[in-house]
Amino acid sequence: MKKLLTTTAGLVVVELLVLGAAIVKPSKTGDRDLDAQLVKINEKAKADPDVFFRQLSQQHNIPEAEIRQEKERRGLSYGDTYMAAALSRLSKRPIGAVAEEYKPKEGKGWGVMAMNMASSPAPRNSIR
User: Fold this and answer.
1) What radius of gyration, in Å, describes the C-alpha atoms of the chain?
2) Could you tell me how far CA 43 lies from the centroid of its own chain?
3) What is the pLDDT of residue 118?
4) Among 25, 24, 35, which residue's Cα sits nearest to residue 110?
5) Helix 110-119 vs helix 78-91: angle between axes, to the nearest 10 degrees?
6) Domain that holds residue 113
7) In a domain, 67, yes or no
8) Which helix (H) or strand (E) holds 14?
9) Handedness of CA 29, 50, 73, 1 (dihedral sign)
10) What is the mean pLDDT of residues 107-112?
């Protein structure tokens, strides 16, 4: 499971890199390429939030309302919401649990979150 989650998290990063280059803002995650992709996701989602939530819901099999609720509740950017949904699916944890764990550790980045989740099993009462 740990190896699969680590590999899949790596694939998420590669998927983001393949989406194309974007204007790089000062790093928030510690990875310039990932930051650039998250900036691009933010820009596209701001232009059409409904499409963003619908596609994210379909891609990760999470109810659209749940994604919207966690974005608002946790004050996540669209890019962070994307990463929370991806890690939710990969770790089989509810998006709320992923977002809740990420927010206080925001400065450490999503890569650290993925590694931490890979090293600890999903909670037994997890819905996913």
Assistant:
1) 14
2) 16
3) 72
4) 35
5) 20
6) 2-119
7) yes
8) helix 2-18
9) negative
10) 72
Looking at this protein, which amino acid is placed at residue 97? A
The yes-or-no verdict on residue 27 having pLDDT over 90 is no
DSSP letters along the chain, please? -HHHHHHHHHHHHHHHHHT---PPPSPSSS-HHHHHHHHHHHHHHHH-HHHHHHHHHHHHT--HHHHHHHHHHHT--HHHHHHHHHHHHHHT--HHHHHHHHGGGGGG-HHHHHHHHHHSPPPTT---
pLDDT for 21 beyond 60: no
Q: Pick the residue with more confidence: 101 or 29?
A: 101
For 12-19, what is the mean pLDDT? 53
Judged against a pLDDT cut of 80, whether residue 38 lies above it is answered with: yes
In-domain check, residue 115: yes
List the one residue out of 43, 41, 35 whose CA is nearest residue 19. Answer: 41
Residue 124 domain-assigned? no
User: According to the model, what pLDDT value does residue 113 have?
Assistant: 76
- Residue 128 forms part of a structural domain: no
Number of domains in the chain: 1
